[in-house]
Amino acid sequence: MRQFVCSSLPDSKGLLEISGKDFHYLRKVLRLSVGDMITLSLPGGLSQEATLCKADDAAKKIVIQICQSQETGGQESSQAQNGRAFYTLLQFIPKPQKMELIVRQATECGIANIIPVIGEYTQAGSEKPLQKGERFEKIIREARQQSGSLLETKIFEPRKLSAALDLIEGPDFFCQEKNLGQEENSVAKIVLYERNQKTLPLSDALFSASTKPRACVFAIGSEGGISPAEFEELLSRGFKAVHFNTNILRCETAALYAAAAIQSALDN
Q: Which of 35, 50, 147, 227 can bridge 120 by disulfide, Cβ–Cβ 3.0-4.6 Å?
């Protein structure tokens, strides 16, 4: 599905003028011509079908026309609406290039929130690129356009583990997703651990309650993994440890592997 992630809303007539790098993406990368259709992902999580109605290559401008007004149609990107769970990745920060790959892949997988965690094994300075923000917002936008994800993946400011856990335990964290409160048993909390101690099979960790969780927070270590103290803190805050009986995985592979396994269990 060809998709363009918009940073602004159309005007009152349903028209959206696009120039600059976005013009190049639509005209040269997607090779859209006048009359071609494209899906727009608008701010606020609304998806609209649109038509390219004007292209001025000399001025490097494109005008797109919404096919139906926002008031009368459009598709919401709510995970709950399409039966999928709501996912948050708690990622202990690895080296910048690996973090970029993790963010890209998590976005393509439909992860709603990415919370970078400054852990004991995080290499000094690795959190600095995350504090700027623009680079990772660009990665998320490109990944959404490539994958067709309607979900507005959000990346948070890097923080220590305790602060990250306080964030997800806040009363309003999960309320951004429609039909999902933070009532007991609605959120599964998983930590992927490289050792066997204190671990459960994934199915037991996810379905420990009688009801199917509608959201999942899963924690993944950096290159050095998760320290014993951090592991114990996660357990004390309600996380259940899972060990996958696989070969040794790089942290960027572990994040993708865990996302795929958990999504397969909950969404299918």
A: 227
For residues 64 and 16, the answer to whether their CB atoms sit within 8 Å is: yes
Q: How far apart are CA 244 and CA 193, in angstroms?
A: 8
The span from the CA of 196 to the CA of 244, in Å, is: 9
**For the segment 14-66, what is each residue's pLDDT rounded down to a tens digit?**
888 888 888 888 888 888 888 888 888 887 767 788 888 888 888 888 898 88
The structure's pTM equals 0.81
Q: Give the model confidence (pLDDT) of 187-231 as tens digits.
A: 999 999 988 889 999 999 998 766 788 899 999 999 989 999 999
Q: List the structure tokens of 215.
A: 């959201």
Residue 111 dihedral angles phi and psi, to the nearest 5°: -80, 130
CB proximity list for 190: less than 8 A, separation 6 or greater: 202, 205, 206, 216, 217, 218, 219, 239, 240, 241, 242, 258, 262
**At a CB cut-off of 8 Å and minimum separation 6, what does 71 contact?**
none
3-state DSSP assignment of residue 229: helix
- What CA–CA distance (Å, rounded) separates 219 from 231? 10
Buried b or exposed e, range 189-221, using 16+ CB within 10 angstroms: bbbbbeeeeebeebeebbeeeeeebbbbbbbbb
Helices then strands, counting H and E runs in the chain, come out as 8, 14
Return the closest-CA partner of residue 116 out of 107, 103, 132, 134. Answer: 103
